[in-house]
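REQUEST ID: PR-0412
SUBMITTED BY: lab tech R.K.
PRIORITY: routine
TASK: structure prediction, single protein chain
INPUT:
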Amino acid sequence: MSRLKEKKASWPYTFMLYGCGLLLFLEWLYPVPDVTYTSGLTVFIIYALFCFMISMLRMKWWIECLLKGFGLLFALNGLFIDSTFLTGIWFQALYMDLSYNLEAILAQQWYNMTPLFRSFLFLLLIGLMSYLLHYWFVVMKRIFLFVLLTFIYLAVLDTFTVYDGDMAMVRTFIISFIALGIANVMKELDKESIDFSWIKKTPIWAIPLVVTVLIASLIGYAAPKLEPQWPDPVPFIQSTAENAGYHGAGGGSVQKVGYGEDDSRLGGSFVQDYTPVFEASVSEEHYWRIETKDVYTGEGWENAEDPDYLSQNAGEISLETFDTDAVETESLEAMVDFQEDTAIDKLIYPYGTHHVYATGAQYLMDPHSEAIETRINDEPANLDNYTISYDHPSFAIDELQETGNDDPEDIQERHTQLPSSLPDRVGELAEEITATYDDRYGKAKAVERYFGQNGFEYQTTDVPVPEEDEDYVDQFLFDSQVGYCDNYSTSMVVLLRTLDIPARWAKGFTSGEMIESSADDSTDVYEVTNANAHSWVEVYFPDVGWVPFEPTQGFSNLSDFHRNMDDASGENQDDVMDQTPETEENEPEPELPEEEEETQPAMAEDTTDDASSTFHWWYVSGMVVILIIVGTVMYKKRLRWQTYLLGKRLEKRQNVKTYQEAYHHLLRVLQHVGLEKEPDQTLREYAKHMDARYETDEMTQLTAYYEQVLYNNKADTRSMQQLTQLWKNLIKRIMG
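STATUS: complete
OUTPUT:
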């Protein structure tokens, strides 16, 4: 019947109604560039027009599919593929891309989908919508639901994104009411079987409808309106999502995660960005340093002096952060290869750098911030790649403990600066933390350890921005106690400075993730992303120099430390162990039940009845034996019942804390079967080793998610459901 109704309508009517559907659908496309990273929207709009035209012509279904499919391939060719259209090489390139993306989908690695495949899905959706809208608008004439969804869609985008939907709402109102008027009039004519053939054949009757809608729209647009009843959420979303992150941008907003030069206003949440910055071929993991800052303002960091860049001759870098005669070093080389879209015109270098090799490059160092600007043809420029020679330091703990407080005057004056507005309780806390230590190293380590022992949490979301009259460090130490590297590193520097210990704030990148290991173990290739942007602390030791410290929870100090003395015992024995991330600490094994305590009351009883005494003796003895047997069995099977309980808890409580407990339990199970993690292994290396042993990739997936929840402090319920099953499968395979 619906097909007959369609045939009864004249082509002008069908064209108008379906044209309204097309215009409403385009309102769904217009906001895409504003709310996503999509560019080249013109291609998608042209394809939408093409698909709607094909549907309008009402060809056979297989002809429609062929034409729309050809248009889809043509659009993909224009957007992504350089080969000649529809040649063997062209189909091979398309097949390889589709195969890769199908594998990513089957592995549920959604973020690995390529732009070509995402565009393919988008174009496919447009083709399907052209068919569905023809069915809704022309065949069924039930368009109200799509109209309502369009209004809701635009209202949500206008409220919570940067998209301005004012005119879109007006256009949608006009188009929707014209379409509703046409559809309802024709439905009534068909329903009542009224034979006004001239009405159906001539769309001139729609003119009054259009005029009425236009007048109503003009009146509504010009009429006075109430002011918004709620504050505009867009500025808040921009500050906590799009512009949030690693370094303050001034005012109330903060930048996205990554390296930035403006640190004058710290605080706020940030969004992770795993865009690669550079790849490095190195022999040792270490910090990638860029610069330091020395003036703490109460809100962030600045430098006391403007940059005074001094030319470095022939790639020789005249920078000494430590005394090479007093510190044990190893001569190494690193090769750095930047990504094409990286825009950092400063040298990213390890501690001990003394020479840089790059064709046609010039280097200028600011001795105050120790930033090294890279130039090409006397203009600041980001280098594509370079090789660095450096002396990798290893600091002797016993020598650091023996250094005194005889600091150079300029060091003491410049690097103990604090704002006069700093609350007194910050200094009082520093005195309390270091009260039991006399040497500078002991005090620095005490402050470094303080955050991990007093309830501070590492998180990147819901991190407050201090008020204008509130000190950044004071707010972190005493109020929020949540934050990321900037909060921890700045607080440690300030705490040490209240004790007149010279300290400064350093920034750059951590070592990144290993992506390639050499067969001879000489060098490994690491990928460093924006998410590896980091800040840490440098403390000055007389006759040694600047020594890095790492107060941020979940991060380990990437510098090397050792002892020269034979006896490494004493109160600072745990200093070396502090380099192990807190997240890798093993939880204590459950203790054996203390059955002996159960026997004491029974043995102390004094009875005169021999039979009763004998009965109680055998009763107690039997209970003790049973308890011993049960306790022994439970202890030997402890990993199995602990696994069972943790599995049940994971199913009920899919949160960060439960997953961390489950992952720690997995490490204990592996340790129990003799597969303990080596001290020099990272969790990812250990996971790959275990996967190779058990011929699976489950350990790598579990480890990747463990690091993700540790850094983001947030669990994904959908991922947790799958990871729970992976966790059970892996433990079952390990325990047999």
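NOTES: The longest helix spans residues 166-192.
REVIEWED BY: pending
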